[in-house]
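Reproducibility note. Readers wishing to regenerate the assembly model reported in the main text can use the exact inputs given here. Chain order matters: entities are listed in the order in which they were concatenated for prediction.
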Amino acid sequence: MIKSIALVGGTHGNEMSGIQLIQNWENQGTPSRFDLLDISLYTANPAAIAANTRFLEEDLNRQFTHAALEEATSSQENELAKTINQQLGPKGASVTDLVVDIHNTTSHMGATLIILDTSDFYVQMARYVKQHMPESNILVEDEKAYLDHGYLCTTGKYGVMIEVGAQPQGVLREDVFLSTQKMAEVLLDFCIAFNNNECGDLPPCEAFRLGENISFPLDEDGNRTAMIHHALQDSDFVPLVTGAPMFRTFDGKDIVWPREETTYPHFINEAAYNKLHVAFATSTLFTL
Amino acid sequence: MIKSIALVGGTHGNEMSGIQLIQNWENQGTPSRFDLLDISLYTANPAAIAANTRFLEEDLNRQFTHAALEEATSSQENELAKTINQQLGPKGASVTDLVVDIHNTTSHMGATLIILDTSDFYVQMARYVKQHMPESNILVEDEKAYLDHGYLCTTGKYGVMIEVGAQPQGVLREDVFLSTQKMAEVLLDFCIAFNNNECGDLPPCEAFRLGENISFPLDEDGNRTAMIHHALQDSDFVPLVTGAPMFRTFDGKDIVWPREETTYPHFINEAAYNKLHVAFATSTLFTL
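Running the prediction on these inputs yields the following structure tokens for the assembly.
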């Protein structure tokens, strides 16, 4: 049974759709059909929101490893993570059945549900979301165990992320906001159906399994020599096949996807990964 | 004669197209047809670029009023402005004939040339740009005298801004980068033509004159109650007529443009103005 649910916005202080959704539901209440659920609304990093920045010192959404929660305090966000872990968690023995952490991205990923595990609960959730929101994407990051991730949502017994784009940092777009709200509502509808054992036999769905990060090409001095090719820009989750252009160099040449295997790129040109020279992430398509 | 020209990127540290163009031309040289011109390439705020933020303490591009340049130092950017003014200016008695300051915006403004004065030089420049880049927009901000603006470009004897969008902060998009590069090259081509007295009789062109900022609706507590309507989003410089929707409230109602006069909105949902609750700026269409 999913009794207690925490909906979280503002884990990154410049991702406006989650921040706005939490604020709206705090002011207006959550839709009445969710009165059956024990929902708490949570704004994670008010100081970063006030500063209109992703984080002040360290990325809050990487501070929830066991190690980071146990080490000496390294930053404002690390300290904040310990507080949040006491309130929503503690991780591994949580008082919260499900933590839904709401993000947005500058990449054209549409409404994406990120799950970190493919145990039965998550499979049912993913299939339910895909059935009720066919335009959505399911992204699986299960390269390590659920509790080994550093994400805020892992403070919950179960934890997932909503990731919607394209939306610039510091901007609220109606299309992205409404998609975010819709996915949050579908997740809450799923919890009610799950608790009532009404999910039935949900049909398997398409999902993408995270591969690795692909870096921008750099010269010997570490300067970038190319940008995302216009054919790849805004083409998140569209198959990138052998020989298709992925970068355009600043002197006008194309660099193509060199591998034999088709990949499904995402987080293409995400602003938050720009400083790390991450161009996009790969994934494989499978049936969940 | 336009002899000395400063091309400036990184006035805002998270606007990547100008930063990248200056870096590329520093590494590769400017295109050889511009060898006739005395061009200096300038990166305005390296500390903000390193921090991947618009500014550290104050908006650098508002620090170039006479008052701000003469007052006691109020911030890192105010101090930086005084240094830049010594190098590119000094304002009002400048060693630089033309300062071109390169910006980008999260608004869908395409390639926009911003001029602050409609004296003959700027009129010829605007007409030349529009002739050689018909897809561009000319925005005139002449509500006050050229030297009364606080913009960095006013350190030049002449000064203009390139403003291209839509591009998220911290992201380089190929389409926006190439438009930025094209407009920079067209401006340099214009300088050569102007110096050679080869502009001829340029046909008059359409331009937009800045009106005022329109704010998001707020409740008594200062919380925003609406977002940019999807019909207005990405519709910069498209006529907004009486009764057309401009906001969508969070409870699903439309708020329409109430005035008799059609306006030409721009800087729609610009991230940098989000904290100020500026939704968009108005303008009027005229022939320049």
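We highlight two features of this model. Chain B has a mean pLDDT of 97. Chain B has six helices and eleven strands.
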